[in-house]
Structure formats: structure tokens, C-alpha cells
Amino acid sequence: MEEPGSSCKKLCVSEEKRKVQEKWSNAYFVVPQGSDKVMCLICKQVNAMLKEFNIKRYYDTNHKMYDNFMGKERTTKLEQFQRGLTAQQSVFTNLAKSGEAVTQASYGVSLRNCQAEQAVQ
Predict the structure, then answer these.
(1) What is the DSSP string of the chain?
(2) Which of 6, 43, 103, 114 has the fewest CB atoms lying closer than 10 Å?
(3) Are 83 and 59 in contact (CB under 8 A)?
(4) How far apart are CA 109 and CA 92, in angstroms?
(5) Is the dihedral angle over the CA atoms 40, 45, 51, 56 positive or is it negative?
(6) How would you classify the pairing of strands 46-47 and 30-33?
(7) How far is residue 74's CA from residue 78's CA, in Å, rounded to a whole number?
(8) What average pLDDT does the chain have?
(9) pTM above 0.90, yes or no
């Protein structure tokens, strides 16, 4: 015999179409990370659940001391964390771009070596 309600499909989190709310940034110091996650600006931890309850619980458990910042002081702290994240991300972006340039140069050298070898034969 089948259990009541077991024939219903369970709703996947990815199908719930949740969105990051802008008020969470100021309230919990989080920013969107991709389309379905948020990242804590304080400790760079990624939270996979886009539910305010989970984000608030994480903030209250780990970063409650930031509740001392109010108004303009809190906004300044948020901007400071965001600038730090942007700077950190740009370092990795620049490294990736320079790695691509080295690879392209290597391909060019290899192509010229092959062409020179074919011209000798």
C-alpha cells in the first residue's frame, strides 16, 4: 500500500526560483554568488540556500557582533567588504588573463617552429 502523499513530486530547490533580495546585503552582509547562492562578505563563506531564515541564522551564529554597526557606519562597512571582494576577484581575473596570453604566445611560437621546419624540408 502506498503512503499518502508519496505519489506527489517533491519540489527541488532549483525549481523554486528564489532570488537574492537586496535588503539581505545590508542586513546580513551577503552578495549574490551565481544565480542560486549568496556569499558572506565577512568570511567569504558561500551559502547554498536562498532562504532568509538560513541566511539570518548563519549571520546570527557567526557574525552577530556586526549588529553594533548602524546606519551610515553599517553602509560604510558593507562598501568596504564589497571593495575587498572586488579587489580579490580582480587579482584572480588578471592572473587568468595573463595565463591565457602565455598560452597564446606558446601556440604562436609552436606554429612558427613548425612552419620553419617545413620550409627546410
Answers:
(1) -PPTTTTSPPPPGGGG-----THHHHHH-EEEETTTEEEETTT--EE----HHHHHHHHHHH-GGGGG--HHHHHHHHHHHHHHHHHHHHHHHHHHHHHHHHHHHHHHHHHHHHHHHHHH-
(2) 6
(3) no
(4) 26
(5) negative
(6) unpaired
(7) 6
(8) 78
(9) no
